[in-house]
């Protein structure tokens, strides 16, 4: 470290002394600047500068950087020396309060160097702050002399830098103010730079989010176009005047149209649910729910869409009536069964099974489909994630079914996870707290 020789009053006494003083101020500033351009985070940076100050300015026994915090409408300490750090961190000065408030308002560096001046400038300090100040200084006395400079860059006012003495009333002179203001300006530049970096980061993030939104819109439109194209194809075929379709064929086409419409409906419902979740509108309205009944209901609905699969619902007879949100729980079954069908193109069994434990109930939905490779299991619950490894299997979807199911299950206090083997099938497990209802009205 280059500079450790403190500035002393004798510099101003002779021109030689003045030269030395300037030299030392220059060296002190160069030390402080070096700290300020380091890669430390802002708070650490200002702390490091504050630690340097007493090494280069001998008379500075206490120092404080107070920054204006818009959200609390208070000046709060960012860094200090000579105070108990933990205690001084609790200081919160209102606009105009004490030396900080006044120097901030007036925007010029000032010196308060008689006990009367200090007392007058600090007398409006609120008692709680005064108590914090005294405890942090471990003394009921006010500083004997205080220098304060505004921390400002262009039209941005950030706070105030204060230096003080507690043992020598004439330690500072007005000659020290330009030097103090220069240190405050350097601190201001560091704060400004950090503000601009945060601003640039926020703009970059907003742009990235915008780009992602556009990409998502493109993917979703693509996913919706797929069933739409199929519907259009079947409808156009049915409308062809030259061909007389058999009743059987017509029915087959209409069933296809119906199935594609349901696919579209499922995707649209998930997009809507996902946007509700995004704006914190997943409101759980619990009511006594017979989960086996829900499982049967959704299974019947989904079974209606497929002849290749057989859905079996197997709940124990003593399955409790639980306090759940009916609409959202139906959505969980819909999403999971929908996947079980979509990702078992060869058909097969889909079994919904339940188990009752003292603390929770466990539900599993097992299919005999294509399965999922281990590296794809982890991100499955992230929004818009879809496994792309099997290009021949072109299944429409938005990558929202599992994240929505997870949000719903977790909002009920449960957990969801997946086990899978490529080529053998997938089992989704979810748990819900076993908090049965005592009084239930029969429906
Ligand atoms: P979507 O089905 O609309 O793509 P999901 O969030 O429901 O979105 O599922 C995400 C991905 O997880 C799917 O794209 C699929 O690759 C995989 N997946 C989900 N369920 C199964 C399943 N039962 N079998 C195989 N893969 C599945």
Write up what this structure looks like.
By secondary structure, the protein is α+β, with helices and mostly antiparallel strands. Helix content is 47%, strand content 19%. The chain has twelve helices and twelve strands. A five-stranded antiparallel β-sheet has the order 2-1-5-4-3, with helices on both faces. The chain has a five-stranded mixed β-sheet with strand order 7-9-10-12-11. Helix 10 runs antiparallel to helix 12. The protein is elongated. The chain starts with 14 loop residues before the first helix and ends in a 10-residue tail after the last strand. The site of adenosine-5'-diphosphate (ADP) has 21 residues, from helix 10 and helix 12.
Widest sheet: strand ordering:
2-1-5-4-3
Helix content: 40-55%
| H-E string | HHEEHHEHHEEHHEHEEHEEHHEE
* Percent in strands: 15-25%
> Regions with pLDDT < 50 over 5+ consecutive residues?
1-5, 7-13, 439-443
Give the radius of gyration: 35 Å
């Amino acid at each position: 470290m280059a500079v450790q020789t403190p500035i002393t009053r004798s510099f101003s006494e002779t021109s030689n002394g003045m030269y030395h003083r300037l030299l030392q101020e220059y060296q002190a500033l160069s030390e402080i600047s070096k700290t300020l351009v380091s890669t430390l985070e802002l708070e650490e940076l200002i702390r490091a500068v504050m630690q340097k100050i007493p090494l280069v300015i001998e008379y500075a026994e206490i120092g404080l950087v107070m920054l204006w915090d818009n959200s609390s409408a208070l000046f709060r300490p960012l860094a200090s020396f000579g105070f108990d750090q933990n205690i001084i961190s609790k200081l919160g000065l209102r606009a105009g309060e004490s030396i900080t408030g006044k120097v901030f308002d007036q925007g010029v560096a000032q010196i308060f160097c008689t006990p009367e001046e200090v007392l007058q400038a600090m007398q409006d300090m609120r008692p709680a702050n005064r108590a914090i100040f005294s405890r942090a200084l471990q003394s009921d006395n006010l500083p004997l002399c205080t220098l304060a400079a505004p921390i400002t860059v262009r039209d941005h006012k950030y706070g105030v830098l204060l230096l003080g003495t507690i043992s020598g009333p004439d330690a500072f002179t007005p000659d020290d103010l330009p030097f103090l203001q220069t240190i405050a300006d350097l601190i201001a530049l560091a704060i400004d730079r950090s503000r601009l970096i945060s601003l640039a980061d926020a703009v970059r993030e907003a742009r990235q989010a915008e780009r992602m939104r556009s990409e998502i819109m493109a993917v979703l439109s693509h996913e919706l176009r797929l069933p739409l194209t199929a519907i259009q194809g079947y409808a156009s075929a049915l409308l062809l005047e030259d061909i007389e379709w058999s009743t059987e064929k017509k029915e087959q086409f209409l069933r296809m149209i119906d199935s594609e419409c349901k696919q579209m409906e499922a995707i649209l419902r998930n997009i809507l649910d996902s946007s509700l979740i995004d704006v914190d509108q997943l409101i759980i309205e619990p009511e006594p729910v017979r989960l086996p009944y829900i499982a049967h209901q959704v299974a019947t609905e989904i079974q209606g869409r497929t002849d290749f699969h057989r859905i079996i619902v197997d709940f124990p007879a003593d399955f409790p009536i639980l306090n759940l949100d009916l609409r959202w729980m139906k959505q969980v079954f819909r999403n999971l069964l929908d996947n079980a069908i979509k990702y078992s193109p060869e058909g097969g069994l889909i079994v919904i099974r339940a188990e009752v434990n003292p603390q929770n109930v466990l539900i599993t939905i097992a299919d005999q489909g294509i399965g999922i490779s281990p590296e794809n299991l982890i991100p499955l619950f992230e929004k818009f994630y879809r496994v792309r490894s099997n290009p021949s299997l072109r299944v429409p979807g938005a990558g929202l079914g599992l994240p929505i199911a997870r949000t719903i299950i977790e909002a009920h206090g449960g957990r969801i996870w997946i086990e899978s083997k490529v080529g053998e099938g997938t089992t989704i497990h979810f748990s819900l707290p076993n908090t049965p209802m005592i009084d239930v009205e029969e429906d």
